[in-house]
TrEMBL record:
Its main location: membrane. Residues 7-130 form the Methylamine utilisation protein MauE domain. Keywords: Membrane, Transmembrane, Transmembrane helix. The keyword Membrane applies. GO terms for biological process: methylamine metabolic process. It comes from Rapidithrix thailandica. This is MauE/DoxX family redox-associated membrane protein. It is a multi-pass membrane protein. GO terms for cellular component: membrane.
Amino acid sequence: MHIKRLFFQVLPQLLAGVMLYTATRQWLDWEAFQGQLLNQPLPKTLSLILTGLLPSVEVLLAGLLLFEKSRPLGFALTMGFMSMTSGYIVLVLSEAFAYVPCSCVGMLDNQPWEVQLALNSSIFFLALAGYRIRENRLCPDTPARYRQDRELPKT
């Protein structure tokens, strides 16, 4: 099997699995997750909103990545989500807040913020690779409607 084709078939499922794993962990241990978010240097109201919003967004991203038609949007939104969470981590690491909270909100419990940032960056670049493969005709199975070399309708 062609390596690009294999990569493109496995990548969305891998990213969706990561998102579903994280959301499921957050939902299964709701009280601990909410407590961890309330420990972040964010307004209490925002932390409470994020408690419900973050896992929901992760499930939405997983769904977008699993379906062929929505996959390009899923890759793009995954990049955006990882950029936002990575931006927060950079603020924490640059000591922009009054205190450094625990890094227990992400996918990896109690790992240093640097590890969380490396993981987020890896997910971002995998999503970018998936998007670029899809959009730049690098995948031979990309349907014509998604390729940049497709013929435009004649007007």
